[in-house]
Amino acid sequence: MLCFPVWAAAGAYKPWQGFFIPSALLGWMGYIWLRMAGQLPSKGKVEKQISFWASLSFWLYLFLQYARSHRRQVFDPEAVRWGYSEAELHPEWLSWIPESFSSWLPSSVHPPEAWEMLSWFIPVLSALLILRHLFRSSFFSPFFRSAMLLNGLAVAALCFIHLSLGWVKMYDRQAFGDDVYGCFGYPNHGAHFFILLLALAIGSAAQEWFTPKEMRSTFRLWLSLTSGMIFIMAAALSSSRSGLIGPPLLCFLILLLLGRVLWPRSPPVSRTKVAVYSTIASVSIAILFWAVAAPYHLKELQNATTELNVEQEVGARFWQMETAFEIWKDAPIYGVGGWGYRYLVGSYLPREHWHWLTTGKANVHNDLLQFLAEFGILGCTLLLIPFLPYLQAGIRGLRLPATYDRSLWANPLRISSLCGLFVLFLISQFDIPLRSPAVFLQTVLLLNLLLPSPANLSIWPEKVDWERFSAQGTHARKAQKRASSSPGSPDSTRSSSRRH
């Protein structure tokens, strides 16, 4: 459920989504089997939580949008433009429902694309609920971390093969747009995917590094270090601005927050080592990127840095957000259904702006606004409820000291997961990372790593006043030296006898 969607065009290609819902069902069967076998804590069963029932309600809500989603394209002679008819019940076996009742149900535009929302959100919310309970066992958190890193390395290898062999089609077989990158039909989704995996790799490496040697896993340490370097390159070579700016921003935030925790707990020598190692790693990655990057990668780097026109970029996105808000105002409770924005955006644009509707304008490029326009207040509320425990735990954990197990600063894994989610949130304000089930599933994994679990507790000691400690050590050494050099002292007698 976590690994396979990324191989199916990051989950964004409808003909390859047939196994998404069955994989979620297998995930629930595995969870039930583990619970019956006594492998999971009995406290806090998933079916007793409001998140579970909110998820079921959201799935039912999406099914109702699918059931009432057959809208025909019609011509409006008064407005002199094409539009869409009222929604009709799509499956024939629902024809018994009275029209007076069905008119109150949520609706969508096109049945296959309304069903696609179920293919996305059944696995995503299932993973959210199941992982939350699996991670209460000390085995599953390290297992899933390693599995996702290995899966990410395989995806990165495919991306590198795609570039080196000059493939145009996905897997050199399936035509999928003009900008295929490995198994990603939209290269930006590849960048988002690798940014989240980079956060996981850095956090996992630091977690193992600061763990006592007798408890450290050498395999996970080297796996995390190796995969982190590869994920930076894979994100940068996606020819995406997110992939060029996101990894440096993520690394800077992680170092900044880790430094906040480590500075009062590390001696000056360790601080210097961290600075040196970080500099060496940054220079090595930069040299490697310049060595393997194609001219269009370097051009995109210029567009994302020295030639970035912020006003133009904001203007190119703002009309989409404004249009999505206008669509939502006409259907505030139910929304217009999954993928409804792409069908209705032209109806909200003046004729003189129709030339804006070019390739890539099927999405709002703001995930929150697109969810609001397509699911309405009711759907967004049901979707938000399963995520509220993570938001609540995060707000509480922000204020707790790093030595507390429930603190967000309790270990490097939580700090890096928090930074990865923050970078993804920034990207989602002007791009579409959550329009990919593969990226959404990685987001779910990082969210579960924010919660305290037996394998995810605080690893930090208490703070140390290193200046005072070093000053005391200096005074002690000076006193010892004076005592050893004074006449009649045991040390001076021994040194005198040695000289004689």
What brief labels describe this structure?
two-stranded antiparallel ribbon, single chain, 18 helices, 500 residues, mainly alpha, globular
Question: Could you explain the architecture of this structure?
Answer:
This protein is mainly α and 500 residues long. Among the domains are: 138-308 and 400-460, no CATH class; 466-499, no CATH class. Helices cover 60% and strands 2% of the residues. It has 18 helices and 2 strands. A two-stranded antiparallel sheet has the order 1-2. A hairpin with a 4-residue loop joins strand 1 (73-76) and strand 2. Helix 6 (187-209) runs parallel beside helix 16. The N and C termini lie far apart (80 Å).
Largest sheet: 2 strands, antiparallel
What is the mean pLDDT?
84
Strand order in the sheet with the most strands: 1-2
Q: Roughly what fraction of the amino acids lie in strands?
A: under 5%
Would you count the extended β strands for me?
A: 2
Instruction: Name the helix and strand elements from N-terminus to C-terminus, one letter apiece.
Output: HHEEHHHHHHHHHHHHHHHH
Estimated helix fraction: 55-70%
> How far from one another are the termini?
80 Å
Radius of gyration: 28 Å
DSSP helical segment count: 18
The helix/strand class is mainly alpha
Shape: globular
Low-confidence stretches: 492-500
